[in-house]
Structures are given as structure tokens and as C-alpha cells.
Amino acid sequence: MMPYSEDHIALAAEYALGTLDADERAQVETMMSVDKDFAAIVDAWEDKLSVLNQMVGSVEPRAEVWDKIKEAVGHSEPQAPLVLPQAPPVVVPEVKEPAEVVDTSNVIRLSAQARRWRNVASFTTAIAAALVAMIAVGVYQPDLLPDGVRPKPRVQVVEVRTPAVAAAPSAQYVAVLQKEGGSPAFILTVDGASKNFTVRKVGAPPEPGKSFELWLISDKLQRPRSLGVIGGGDFTARPVLSSYDNDTINTATYAVTVEQAGGSPDGNPHSAPVFTGKLIEAVPPR
Questions:
Q1: What is the Cα–Cα distance from 252 to 274, expressed in whole angstroms?
Q2: Quick one: which of 229, 281, 232, 227 has its CA closest to 254?
Q3: Are 177 and 213 in contact (CB under 8 A)?
Q4: Burial 55-85 (b: 16+ CB within 10 A, else e)
Q5: Using CA atoms, how far apart are residues 216 and 129, in angstroms rounded to an integer?
Q6: What rounded mean pLDDT belongs to the chain?
Q7: Distances (CA, A) of 59 to 56, 62, 107
Q8: What are phi and psi for residue 131, nearest 5 degrees?
Q9: Weakest mean pLDDT among 2-6, 166-170, 225-229, 274-278
């Protein structure tokens, strides 16, 4: 595409806007017929300005409006014959030789160019205002826009998370493991929901080179079942009761034996129970 001056671009814009006089329109149409690139510039301006046509619908004036127009231009009655005033005699002024001829072609050209760009700027401002109005209508009242320019509805998926409901406290069971008539050696706590248990060391004397091991003894079982070695710290927690039903857990006897370091090697107790006790409900379920 060949380069075009600002005058050519302004002419194309004004042609698309319809603000040129008859001579200028004829000039543009002649250029369009011989120059395809210039015709493309005119088409581009018409595409940019066509959005205004979508916002304006045709309105038919009422009959009384036409009557007022005819009355204003003098067509409400038969038009009187046109009488021209007599022209005064022509006086030929004396022509004097001008001292200096001033070339005003540049002034005329610049004035026309300024007028064209003022017109283009005015219509561009109007287009910008119309687009802002369209955007505002599209946001707040999209139903007022034509189907061609109406924005498509957006679907937004929102994830709503409900606050987690805290689980109700479960029943808590406690067994005091001690010698008969002696002071507590261990305290066993069992959670009724999770069946996890915790052994709290209280007054058991240390056994050097040995380990305390906890056992579950029940009439439903053929032999005592090991619940693991009690650690050397104050608390020992285990989840191993989960394999037993609630009735077995609640009715069993819990015993502590002294085994070799690391506990029984074969899963059977190798000494008599030193401390025993049964579970009682300490905290009821809610």
C-alpha cells in the first residue's frame, strides 16, 4: 500500500462521515475508482463508524411534523410565481496594477486541512462517547442493546465452602493399673470413638534392663493379647485397640507385666501381671 498524506486520510474519513461537499465527494469517488488502496482506506473508516448506525433506528416523522415543514418552506399553499428584482447597472471598476501578488494557496490548503481534522476529531470524540455509553448500557442494562453488540452472559462458578462442623466429644474411659491395695502405677485412658489409648506413667518403679508390657485379657479371647511395650517417657499412645469390638474393650482386664528389654519375643506374657485394672466411663458421650 502506497503512503498517503494526512489530507488523503482526512478526505477518506469525511467521506465516510458524509460531511464533504459535492465537489469533494466527486474527487474522492474518482480516487477510489482508480486507486484500490485508497478505496480500502475509505472502507476501513466506514467499518469503524458503522457501529453508530447500529445504535440509531429509523424514525418516521408524524403527519403534523410534515405539515409544519411545508408551512415553514412556503409549500402549504400554491407557490406564487417567482419575481426577480431588477438588477442594478453594472459598474466596471478601474483596475489598478497590484504592487505585489501574494500566493494564498498554502493558506487555503492549510485552512481546509485544519477544517477536515477538526471535523474528524469532533466525530472521533462522538464515537468515543457513544462507545462509553454502550459499555455502560452493556454492564447495567444489556437488554437495551441490539443482538449484534449485546455482550454474552458470563457463567462464573463459585465454590462455597461450609464451615466444618466440630465432631461431638466421644466417651472417655479410664483404668487405674495398680497392685491390689497399692498406689496407682499407670493410668490407662481410652477414647470411645477412635479406640486410641494413652498410658500415663504415675508411680511404677523402674525395672533396669527390663520393659513394662501392657496386655488385654478377656473371656472372649483364648489368650492375653499384647498391646505393646510401655515407653520410658511419661506418656505412651497406641492405636492398636481398633481391631477389637467395644464390648471386648469395655469389659476386658488390662494388665502390665515385666518382660525382657523390648518386650515379649513371642507375643505371650513371661511373668505374672504386676499391675491390673478395668475401664470405667469417665466422660459420657454428648
A1: 16
A2: 227
A3: no
A4: eeeeeeeeeeeeeeeeeeeeeeeeeeeeeee
A5: 86
A6: 77
A7: 9, 9, 42
A8: -65, -40
A9: 166-170
pLDDT at 107: 46
Residue 197 parent element (H or E): strand 197-201
**The cell 471535523 sits on which residue?**
119
What are the residues facing 236 on neighbouring strands?
199
d(CA 46, CA 40): 10
Query: Taking a C-beta distance cutoff of 8 angstroms, is the pair 252, 216 a contact?
Result: yes
Q: What is the mean pLDDT of residues 173-186?
A: 85
Torsion angle (degrees, nearest 10) of CA 242, 246, 251, 255:
10
Closest CA to 226 of 241, 216, 212, 211: 216
**Residue 178 CB contacts under 8 Å (≥ 6 apart), including other chains:** 184, 185, 186, 275, 276, 277
- In tens, the pLDDT along 98-144 reads 555 445 545 455 566 666 677 666 667 767 666 666 676 565 566 66
Buried b (16+ CB within 10 A) or exposed e, 91-122: eeeeeeeeeeeeeeeeeeeeeeeeebbebbee
Sign of the Cα pseudo-torsion (40, 45, 48, 49, in order): negative
Residues 214/265, Cβ–Cβ less than 8 Å: no
- The predicted model scores a pTM of 0.42
Give the pLDDT confidence of 238-272 residue by residue, as tens digits: 888 888 998 889 899 999 999 988 889 998 998 88
Q: Are 230 and 211 in contact (CB under 8 A)?
A: yes
Q: What would the grid cell of residue 67 be? A: 405539515
User: What type of residue sits at position 180?
Assistant: E
